[in-house]
Amino acid sequence: QTGGAFGNIMGPLLGGVLSYYLGIQQTLLLAGMMLFAATAVVIVGVRETAAKDVDKQVDLVGDLRITFSNSVLVMMLFTLMLFQCSVSLLQPILPIFIKEISTLADSSIATGIIFSLVGIATVIGAPYWGRRGEATGYKPVLIIGLIGAAILSLLHAFASSLWLLGGLRFVFGLFLAALMPACNALIARTVTPEFRGRAFGF
């Protein structure tokens, strides 16, 4: 999660700065080049050990039957879908909202900073939520994270300045940091080791 969070920090910051100084087209080209760089890293640097049961046939229908017979797994997948949908729903409208409440002539850098605040908060909050989940259980952590993120998400609608919106995004990120690790831990605990990879695939 930390690696992804750092990407969420640097991506918006770089995107805002580069689009301001270089333009949108050049920024999009750079994003594509980053993916090629990631591909090269995997090709050169990743060594995968031979998997067991390589001749095992994929049984999608059987996997779906196992998945839907596990009520906890189904609830967790539904929860993941809802919170990912909620987070993604903000992505296309947040830059427009920032432009509306901004007093700046060009809000691209401010947009990058505000987007990156969630990633910064995630890096800060994830270790705490991980320790708390190990100590008290991951379901309470998930509930706290969901309630906190829901309240902060609602408050976004009433932000009247970039400073207020930035503060809300940061605190939102602190609660968001609890969600994915808690969901993953609960999914891992509710399925057998043999089915774990396929469960995360769903």
What does this structure look like?
It is a single chain. This protein is mainly α and 202 residues long. 82% of the residues lie in helices and 0% in strands. The protein is built from 8 helices and no strands. The protein has helices at residues 2-21, 24-45, 60-69, 71-101, 108-136, 138-156, 162-190, 196-201. The protein is globular, with a radius of gyration of 20 Å. The chain starts with a helix and ends with a helix. The mean pLDDT is 81.
Largest sheet: none
How many runs of DSSP E, i.e. beta strands? 0
Strand content range: under 5%
Helix/strand structural class: mainly alpha
Element pattern in H and E = HHHHHHHH
Give the low-pLDDT segments: none
Q: What kind of assembly state do the chains in view correspond to?
A: single chain
Distance between the termini: 18 Å
Number of helices: 8
Helical amount: over 70%
What would the principal axes of the Cα set say about the shape?
Answer: globular
Rg over CA atoms, rounded to whole Å, is: 20 Å
Mean pLDDT figure: 81
Task: Provide a brief overview of the structure.
Helices cover 82% and strands 0% of the residues. With 202 residues, it is mainly α. The two termini are 18 Å apart.
